[in-house]
Amino acid sequence: MSALKTKKEPSGRPALVSGVTDPEQDEQAPLAHPMRQQNALFHFTDLLYRARTLDQIYDVALDVIHDMLGCTRAAILRFDGKGVLRFAAWRRLTEQYRAGAEGHSPWRSDDQEPAAIYMGDIGQADLPPDLATLIRHEGIGALAFIPIMISHGVAGEFVLCYDTPRPFTDEERETILIVARQLGFAIERHHSDQTARRLAALVESSGDAIISKNLEGIITSWNAGAEQLFGYTASEAIGRSVMMLIPPDRHNEEPAILARIRAGERIDHYETIRRRKDGSLVDISLSVSPIKDAEGVTIGASKIARDITERRRAHEQQQLLLHEMNHRVKNLFALATSIVNLSVASAETPAMLASIVADRLGALSRAHALTLASGTADTGFRKTATLHALIEAILAPYVEGAQGERRRFTVEGLDIELAENVVTPVALLLHEFATNAAKYGCFSTSTGRLTIECRRRDGDAVIIWREIGGPEVQPSDAEGFGSRLVRLAASQFGGFSRQWRPEGLVIELRMDLSRVAA
């Protein structure tokens, strides 16, 4: 018994030979000895497994047909995206034959159980006239058409061509079917490997965190996006429970998610909070899909987590701005009403009333402009202003008399030049205090007055705002939007407190001199 050996084709590829017969010389050589045939099939399977491209897979299949069945002319055809059969690889078939035979197929790509077709004598075969003529001109005496099957149908066909008529023995047919079956497995494995590599590349390059876990919640895969978002490396995360990412107050979420996944459900854009390795919390949008095996049984889940911190922060900022705009518009209408009411007492004629109201509304507009963070707005002040000048500008609408001779407020004490970046928040606070005074406090009556004292205390600039002669003060613990706005603005550079005294409201605003002084 001769041992199997390899020879080199002109192309340099290895070919299987039996050592008994040379198929180039004897196309009708019998099959090799069963033991050598079995070894050759094992070798064929090994070569298919090691093939890395479709061309290598096709070459291995054509080699084994050449060496085991003595077939010197053969071809592999594949269905293209339009369902047309195209030549993918061939041996010793002319270009004219390939052009004429392409597109002819006894099967469709979606056929599930196609049978192989053997034509031992082309002269006796029932073929379309044009195809029969083409085959005779090619000098083909016998043909075999073998479907190449994959899991979803027919991938193409394996064609064997012999120069003279011949019978196809049962043993030959069995060998041909084994080769075709192994070829189908190799093609499908190649496509699956390519798909897996593409998916793996997409997962690894994704900026989103993509994680898979089993039905017990144990992490089984972890991409670079997950490492960036949560801070754990893949080696730190894989094998651990996904509960390590869930804050204690949200531990009830995971069992509910797993229950829905076991039921085959998909969860889309679920917004929640997760915990990073350093303990910090992050807002995420979570999508969860079941992972199923070949039988359709759910065996795990794939999670895609996206950081939505910036989106949520932008939404909250948008809501804050909308609330502030609504608050300011309402306040401006209330202030306009208060200004008209207060101006009536000092106006002797309608024309004088119109003039006074116009002057005060103009002052109110200039004061309001100081609360807007605009470096180009013409407010009448430099972008850096002294504390007293800023207070005077904010309270200008509350100067009474036709010529502004009656001031209903006093400003005394410490005066400093304010840093550019604090002019807007300080103006916003003072404007809010003055608005409330006009709506509910000392400026809402004709006899009310305001005193403002500025002091230096332990490294702070302290503004003491005292209202006198207004309506009876009604303390309130509720925090409306205006109070919230004041608290947030004051927290930028110090703090503030309020005292509800019988004679009127007292506000103390503290500002760190190192942060507010120019």
Secondary-structure class: alpha+beta
Please estimate the helix content.
25-40%
Low-confidence stretches: 1-30, 373-382
End-to-end gap:
102 Å
Mean pLDDT: 79
- Binned strand content: 15-25%
Q: Total helix count? A: 14
What is the spatial order of strands in the main beta sheet?
4-3-7-6-5
Shape, principal axes of CA atoms: rod-shaped
Structure characterization notes:
The protein has 518 residues and is an alpha+beta fold. Helices cover 40% and strands 25% of the residues. The protein is built from 14 helices and 19 strands. Strand 10 (267-275) and strand 11 (281-292) form a beta hairpin. Helix 1 (34-50) runs parallel beside helix 5 (170-205). The N and C termini lie far apart (102 Å). The model is unreliable at 1-30 and 373-382 (pLDDT under 50).
List its traits.
disordered N terminus; alpha+beta; single chain; five-stranded antiparallel β-sheet; 40% helix; 518 residues; 19 strands
Quick summary:
This protein has 14 helices and 19 strands. The protein has 518 residues and is of the alpha+beta class.
Topology:
Blueprint: E1 5-8, E2 14-17, H1 34-50, H2 54-69, E3 73-79, E4 85-91, H3 95-101, E5 117-119, H4 129-138, E6 142-150, E7 153-162, H5 170-205, E8 209-214, E9 219-222, H6 224-230, H7 234-237, H8 253-262, E10 267-275, E11 281-292, E12 298-307, H9 309-344, H10 350-369, H11 387-395, E13 399-400, E14 406-407, E15 409-413, H12 420-439, E16 449-457, E17 460-468, H13 481-490, E18 494-501, E19 504-512, H14 513-516
Parallel strand pairs: 15-16
Antiparallel strand pairs: 1-2, 3-4, 3-7, 5-6, 6-7, 8-9, 8-12, 10-11, 11-12, 13-14, 16-17, 17-19, 18-19
Helix pairs in contact: 1-2, 1-5, 2-5, 9-10, 9-12, 11-12, 12-13
